[in-house]
Specification:
Low-confidence stretches: 150-157
Number of helices: 8
Structural class: alpha+beta
Strand order of the largest sheet: 3-2-1-4-9
CATH superfamily of the largest domain: ATPase, nucleotide binding domain
Oligomer: single chain
CATH architecture of the largest domain: 2-Layer Sandwich
Largest sheet: 5 strands, mixed
CATH class of the largest domain: Alpha Beta
Mean pLDDT: 85
Number of domains: 3
Distance between the termini: 36 Å
Number of strands: 12
CATH topology of the largest domain: Nucleotidyltransferase, domain 5
Strand content: 25-35%
Radius of gyration: 22 Å
Order of helices and strands: HEEEHEEHEEEHEHEEEHHH
């Protein structure tokens, strides 16, 4: 397995090069451009563009645009934000990926590479040929001893085991992402499941378990992180647009007005708008129930 940070480090060692990061969500596209200066990674520019108008809908609404429309929006965003990089990395949606923590016997890298695809079949509800696999052996101070089933079918034997973080991405999603960025004049150098990006962005060196919530327009991604490792993850089919819709119904206003109210007022509604606050809170109560 090739570590993503190693890929980035290798890329930034190329003199004068910058790289773009792209996150294509259901309601907006976000980009950043980074470059290396004096041994440090520096943010050059960034930007965000709502996808609602490209689908004839309000800002903040989740969309289901064809690849051509998404590519049009990405080109517009790259131009408006001034991104000049030609190499990029793409965040893969949680819905198009799977992350699982599995136990494997202690093996060398070559043997592990042979066994992982077979073990992955237990956790991936798709043929392994339809996904791209990646994995990382989690460092431990002590290697656990547990019963491991013999491949020869001779029962259970005692052996050393390690935790392995298994990640799978749908090949169809990778192909679509490559086509979108190619239409925008970019070349994709690497992919990363979005929850890993979020974890690195919001957490430091916390060792205690932490719940990380990434609230999108249509869905919310939850991950329990311990020692920088995503121990488990879950997706809830509720997001920020559900708050907008609830406000629009409760206050009898348009979706556009409700989106503005949500962004300006949020959960800090004044006493005379208590009903609006309660309806917003009810959405989050559903998410975290």
């Amino acid at each position: 397995m090739v570590n993503l940070l190693d890929r980035l480090r290798e890329f930034f060692l190329r003199k004068g090069k910058s790289v773009a990061g792209i996150d294509i969500g259901s309601s907006s596209i976000k980009v950043v451009e980074l470059y290396r200066r004096r041994g440090r990674v520096v943010l050059k520019t960034y930007g965000e563009l709502a996808l609602g108008p490209y689908a004839g809908m309000e800002i903040g609404r989740a969309t289901n645009l064809p690849q051509e429309k998404i590519a049009d929006a990405l080109r517009d965003l790259l131009r408006e934000s001034g991104v000049a990089a030609k190499q990029c990395g793409i965040a893969i949606p949680t819905a198009s990926s799977l992350v699982s923590l599995i136990e494997m016997p202690v093996l060398d890298e070559g043997q592990l590479a042979q066994m992982i695809p077979f073990e992955a079949r237990k956790y991936i509800p798709l043929p392994v040929s339809e996904v791209t696999l990646d994995w990382w052996v989690i460092p431990r101070e002590e290697v656990k001893t547990a019963g491991i089933e013999s491949r020869a079918g001779s029962g259970v034997t005692k052996g050393k085991v390690v935790d392995v973080l298994l990640a799978a991405i749908l090949n169809d999603t990778i192909s679509k992402c490559r086509e979108i960025v190619a239409r925008s004049g970019l070349e994709c150098s690497f992919f990363e499941i979005e929850i890993f990006s979020v974890i690195r962005s919001v957490l430091g060196r916390e060792l205690a378990p932490v719940l990380v919530a990434d609230i999108g327009a249509a869905t919310t991604k939850l991950a329990v992180v311990e020692g920088g490792i995503a121990k488990s993850s879950h997706m809830v089919n509720r997001g920020s647009q559900d708050v907008t819709f609830a406000l629009a119904r409760t206050l009898n206003i348009s979706v556009r007005e409700a989106e503005k109210f949500k962004r300006v007022v949020g959960l800090e509604a004044p006493p005379d708008e208590r009903e609006a606050r309660d309806v917003s809170v009810s959405v989050f109560q559903y998410i975290f129930a």
